[in-house]
Design brief:
The complex is a heterodimer. By secondary structure, chain A is an alpha+beta fold. Helix content of chain A is 46%, strand content 12%. Chain B is elongated and about 100 Å long. By secondary structure, chain B is an alpha+beta fold. The chains are: A alpha+beta, B alpha+beta.
Chain lengths: 404, 531
């Protein structure tokens, strides 16, 4: 076959010296969600990386402002859809803060356990997927197998594997199932076993370690300046965890440590998540001990909490309560609130404004991923093209959270 | 102005005002079922009880009560202040009244609410009042308890037909007697009363009579619960889907203020409710007026027509232009409509008097009818006074018929289709362009017919018999190809070769009325202000 450039002059056969443009995404097998990175490459070195979120745009906050306060729950499930329970509980806490509601102890422990299970799901997915994107398919299967176990518990409790919509203003949709504690106690060691096996396959693998170590480094000061929170910030050595710094629910009553990294590189982020998986288990173990088996799961305020269904069908009082809450929505007192919790990727904040009606006047969401993704280009510039996949993977960007 | 203190807040009052009325005037609601600002006060629902602490040095009026002491597991005797009905207690200078801030008042409201719902059926899902029901509102505000009674509730007659318009449900009734008092005090027809005692109480119609007359809808309107429903609105819509516009009733020259409730999803009007206006209709409307919301849809002109055949707007305009080419300007008549707004009529005057320089001005409108001394006016047009102000020289419609017959008028530009009952053939000799929202003799006789929006689809000003200018707000989107009549007339003027300077409703209103229109009341929310 004739070479394609047969007719060209010799001088024109030089490799181009101009930087090459390359689009990663918005649809790419190694990119989570729809995000696009426009790269300027000099050879294989990244000169400039322009990270563009916004390909997934649902008008998320505006959707939340259409229905009643309670109808926001299914929407927040779809923020970080790998750990929807954390979003649910975060939103419930925000509305409860605005209403001045205090949920029963049993509910607080229950929320903590479900939330930590969701965190397990989040970290298992992130670490597993990152390994897979680097070609390590087996550890992925190990970690996802563990995640399936988490989801089995959540399905048992909520009826849904992924988007549970289980939170309620002033409580949870249902009390824990009879075998909840037993199921957790039986499953958690298995999950930890799978994690150990999975990490053994990776952390002793020279190729894997080389691709992570010293890749995508960032200092604590820079990360803080970017507004990073969660495991990504902690990988830089900054021990900031909202569960410790501003405890909510019962986090001040349980013992757990904050795993931190030292270098702020991709390996640290991977290790911090592995560490947090073990801390979450510690928290769940303690919470399981302390969660009462009896008692109400929701608080007893007819202004916010739905009545018992049996009563709705037989008594006028419960019918009225149900009608008012469903048709008009809970009347959240006029005011504004910012409430924040530690979600899978960091600080998940809800800024809510109520005009006193049954519909939120403003729902502003501060998802952790949005800020973290904002730092991606900084991590990539000057690195090699092949570093994008582990760096991006370890940030655990979730498309649903970057809907801005 | 003398004042008293309600929960520490000074409330001014007029001599003779009760506590609840003085507070209501300040926009503060003391919960109530039986009291209504436009009716007498029987003080029988006990929901408006307030605590009036004794003056310094005076002996407190107290009641002995038994209170359950949960710790000791026994009842103990204690005392509580005797509460007063605020709808029956006259306000007095310097009086201290405790409403929301009194623990005894809050408990009394809760207990009253529990009694009222004791035998209430589980009807919310099938009740028309659902969503605007005082029982629902007050249960959440003041009740918030769950049912304690385990017995079968008392059953009473349901679906009792009271008359041609009203259906009664005894189980939902809280015996506030508002309907009884309305019929006796406002409609002056004491046809309703109450029978039996205690939880067997029910409202009934005087034997040999039915609930009829011209003000039956108001019994449903004053009913704070779902006991009385109108046959017209029953099971038609759920109120939380309705939006409301501040409208002016088009039924007669009284110009009653109304809420026009419509469903934006279907662009359909469902009912009128009276809108309080002390100067016009107080809190009331008549039955005939309450039903005129239907005219937003019934008998409407929605397509342009040329000689009775539907066509496009552009074709109709071309035809109008052709018909009016090379004619004698003196033989053109202009017919104002008392059924259309000041804005519409102003544009017709612009076309007729200003552009054509015509002096052949006439006026159409519905024929006169029944009147009474309460609200109903003899003149069945909403804007007769407005047209009189715009065109004082406009001649009656009968003169137009005569002038056409004599041959002095050959061409007519008419606003509005409604005219006194003359056969449409009477105008057969003339070439007529009619811009109208509703069908009538003038639309039947029209050579070119241009569809106009009704009062419900366009904000417009109407002058009632007392000379009060009132704005009726837009509720629905225009039906079919209809457009505001003033726009159709402006386009017609352009087609006939004139230049129209006014292209916005705001400008037009400034010119037509001089910009001194009262702000319309109401909002886009369903509210029951006088309840």
């Amino acid at each position: 076959m004739e070479p394609l450039y047969a007719e060209l002059e010799e001088g024109e056969m030089e490799l181009p010296a101009e930087p090459m443009h390359l689009n990663m995404g918005p649809s790419h097998p190694a990119m989570h969600g729809t995000i696009r990175i426009v790269l300027d490459l000099s050879g294989e070195t990244i000169v400039r990386a322009d990270v563009q979120v916004g390909y997934l745009h649902r008008g998320f906050e505006k959707m939340c402002e259409r229905g009643t306060w309670a109808q926001v729950f299914p929407y927040v499930d779809r923020l970080n859809y790998v750990s929807p329970m954390l979003n649910n509980v975060g939103y419930a806490l925000a509305v409860e803060k605005l209403c001045g509601l205090a949920v029963p102890d049993r509910c607080q422990w229950y929320r903590m356990i479900l939330g930590e299970l969701a965190r397990l799901s989040d970290h298992l997915t992130c670490n597993g997927a990152m390994a897979m994107e680097l070609g390590a398919f087996t550890p992925f299967l190990w970690l996802i197998k563990a995640r399936e176990m988490v989801w089995d518990i959540l399905e048992e409790e909520t009826g849904a594997r992924l988007t549970h919509s289980f939170g309620r203003i002033g409580g949870m949709a249902n009390p824990p199932t009879a075998d909840f504690k037993g199921l957790c106690r039986a499953t958690l060691p298995k999950i930890l076993g799978l994690v150990e096996e999975g990490e053994k396959m990776l952390l002793k693998n020279r190729i894997f370690m080389d691709r992570l170590e010293n890749v995508g480094r960032i200092s604590g000061a820079e990360a803080t300046a970017l507004g990073w929170t969660g495991p990504c910030l902690r990988s830089t050595g900054v021990a900031y965890d909202i569960r410790k710094a501003h405890p909510y629910l019962k986090y001040d009553e349980v013992d757990f440590d904050i795993p931190v990294g030292t270098k702020g590189d991709t390996l640290d982020r991977f290790l911090v998540r592995l560490g947090e998986i073990r801390q979450s288990k510690r928290i769940i173990d303690q919470a399981l001990e302390r969660m009462p088996d009896e008692g109400p799961i929701s608080c007893d305020d007819p202004r916010f909490v739905l009545p018992d269904k049996g009563g709705v069908y037989t008594t006028i009082e419960a019918t009225i309560q149900h009608f008012k809450l469903i048709m008009e929505g809970a009347k959240v007192p006029k005011g504004e609130v910012y409430s924040y919790t530690e979600a899978g990727n960091g600080e998940l904040g809800y800024y809510l404004v109520s005009d006193g009606t049954g519909t939120p006047y403003r729902v502003r969401i501060r998802p952790p991923c949005f800020q973290i993704t904002g730092g991606l280009s900084k991590l990539l510039e000057g690195r090699m093209l092949s570093d994008i996949v582990p760096t991006f993977g370890a940030l655990n960007m979730i498309g649903g959270e970057c809907d801005h | 102005m003398p004042t008293f203190k309600l929960d520490g807040k000074p409330i001014p009052f007029d001599a003779g005002d009760t506590i609840i009325k003085a507070a209501w005037k300040q926009g503060i609601e003391i919960p109530h079922y039986c009291w209504h600002a436009g009716l007498s006060a029987p003080a029988n629902c006990r929901m408006c009880l307030v605590e009036i602490p004794p003056k310094p040095g005076a002996r407190p009026v107290t009641l002995d009560v038994l209170e359950w002491d949960a710790k000791a597991g026994t009842y103990r005797t204690t005392q509580k202040p005797k509460l007063q009905p605020s709808c029956y207690t006259a306000a007095a200078e310097g009086m201290e009244v405790l409403s929301d801030s009194s623990e005894h008042v809050r408990k009394a409201r809760r207990d009253v609410q529990e009694f009222l719902l004791l035998n209430h059926p589980v009807d919310c899902p099938i009740c028309d009042q659902s969503g605007e029901c005082k029982l629902q509102d007050y249960w959440l505000e003041h009740g918030r308890y769950q049912k304690r009674m385990r017995d079968e509730p008392v059953h009473k007659p349901k679906g009792v037909v009271f008359g041609p318009t009203i259906v009664y449900d005894g189980e939902r009734c809280v015996m506030c007697t508002r309907c009884i008092r309305f019929m006796a005090e406002v409609a002056k027809d004491p046809v309703l009363d109450m029978r039996e005692r205690g939880n067997l109480n029910e409202i009934f119609v005087a034997p040999g009579r039915q609930l009829d007359g011209h003000y039956t809808f108001m019994t449903e309107h004053v009913c704070p619960v779902g006991a009385l429903t109108t046959k017209d609105f029953r099971f038609k819509a759920r109120v939380w889907f309705l939006r409301t516009a501040a409208a002016v009733c088009q039924g007669c020259a009284t110009g009653c203020n109304a809420h026009l409730d419509y469903d934006p999803r279907y662009n359909k009007a469902y009912r009128y409710r009276p809108r309080d206006n002390e100067k016009v209709n107080q809190f009331w409307m008549c039955d005939e007026g309450m039903l005129t919301y239907k005219e937003a849809h019934d008998g409407r002109v929605v397509q342009p027509k040329v000689r009775g055949k539907e066509t496009s707007s552009a074709r109709a305009m071309e035809e109008a232009k052709a018909l009016f080419a090379n004619i004698n300007k003196d033989s053109v008549a202009f017919v104002f409509s008392a059924a259309h707004s000041v804005e519409d009529n102003w544009m017709l005057r612009e076309v007729g008097a200003t552009f054509f320089g015509s002096a052949s001005l006439y006026m159409s409108g519905a024929a006169e009818g029944y009147e009474d001394r309460i609200l109903i006016h003899r003149d069945k047009n909403p804007n007769t006074a407005g047209v009189r102000q715009l065109a004082p020289s406009a001649k009656p419609f009968q003169t137009l018929v005569e002038d056409v017959a004599r041959g002095s008028i050959t061409h007519i530009i008419a606003l509005g289709g409604v005219a006194p009952s003359v056969a449409s053939q009477a105008l057969g000799g003339a070439t007529i362009i009619t811009v109208a929202a509703h069908e009538g003799p003038l639309t039947a006789a029209a050579t070119v017919l241009l569809p106009a929006t009704s009062w419900a689809e366009q904000s417009g000003t109407y002058v009632n018999a007392k000379g009060i200018k009132q704005v009726s707000e837009k509720a629905l989107e225009p039906l079919g190809a209809s457009r505001p009549a003033w726009r159709q007339l402006a386009d017609l003027a352009v087609a006939l070769g004139y230049e129209v300077s006014t292209t916005s409703l705001k400008q037009l209103r400034l010119k037509a009325i001089g910009g001194t229109i009262p702000e319309p009341l109401g909002s886009s929310r369903v509210t029951t202000s006088a309840d």
